[in-house]
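S2.1 Query sequence (Acetate kinase)
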Amino acid sequence: MNVLVINCGSSSLKYQLFNMKDESVLAKGLVERIGIEGSKLTHEGPTGGKEKIEVPMKDHKEALGHVLEAITHAEYGAIQSLDEINAIGHRVVHAGEKFSGSVVITDAVMAALEECIELAPLHNPPNIMGVSAMQELLPGVPNVGVFDTAFHQTMPQSSYVYALPYEYYERDHVRRYGFHGTSHRYVSQRTAEILDKNIEDLKIITCHLGNGASLAAIDGGKSIDTSMGFTPLEGLVMGTRCGDIDPQIVTYIMGKEDLTLDEMNNIMNKKSGVLGISGVSSDFRDIEDAAKEGNERAVLALDIYHLNVRKYIAAYASVLGGVDAIVFTAGLGENGIDSRKEICKNLEFMGAVLDPEKNKVRGKETVVSTDDSRVKIMVVPTNEELMIARDTLELVK
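Output structure tokens follow.
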């Protein structure tokens, strides 16, 4: 069975075509600047060569039409006919409290996703557009929704209810939802496989550290707490997001600077984080280079970031009542040798001891703790697309 996985953004989309017999990637690619001048599709077929296709694409339907043409192209395609696509898996950011797992998309599911637009106004609309486009382009082929929020629906109320008047939860659905769920789920399952342990017997802290970042406390394969909240703004210091701050700061700055809601929202989401502290970049590689050159604000940004992640790890060890594995994933988690070293400082008290030599690794599944470390410290590259493909296969086979 072949499964096409699609991840639609507002003006871009990524795709991968899997052969689920061996979970191999037959083709993958990226479409950029949808609805904008200079639309471009970069396609990689089974030979590994990349084809760049520049053609106007006014919407997601046109973009996905070109994706299907590339996948079936006589020279660089991966399959001969669209009939060889058996199912389509979609990354959908927000499902609210409606779904605790992946689902085959029906009219009722689409209506539920429309209702969740107010919770994810930037992400759900393009996700929905991608589903609608594929329903038109490949009628009769089942579509599956895999939700970023679903994995965290196992959290207890004590983890997701905010200390606000309870009617805001009941009436307006204000609660912690958590994100990166597909990544946290994949990484925790893969961790259990690597350790050759039953996931039901493990307490795992997964650290998804990229430009957006979150931690999850996973007990027996279920999320019981996570750092992102009602939106992806809460939690860790990130590339451009402020993470946890005193909420009174918001009204204070708005009053002092005479800012609108949109302006303040833009500051917290796009001008804060390590970018706001360092004044250098939201890219940790740039900040690390600046820090080595003596830029004090770059040094400060890294120190704040590492302390922030370390505090969450220690807190989640308490939530779990102990921990068997701390796992780093995503761009910085997989490749940030220095960041992993700094984050793991002072965690020896809880039995987590990093091995400096083993830690000199990028993007590879491995254990980086010392042989006698009671808590395993690991690097496990995430694979959200494969997780989506697996869920899709499970639901339609």
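The two ends are 8 Å apart (CA to CA). Residues 296-320 form the longest helix (25 residues).
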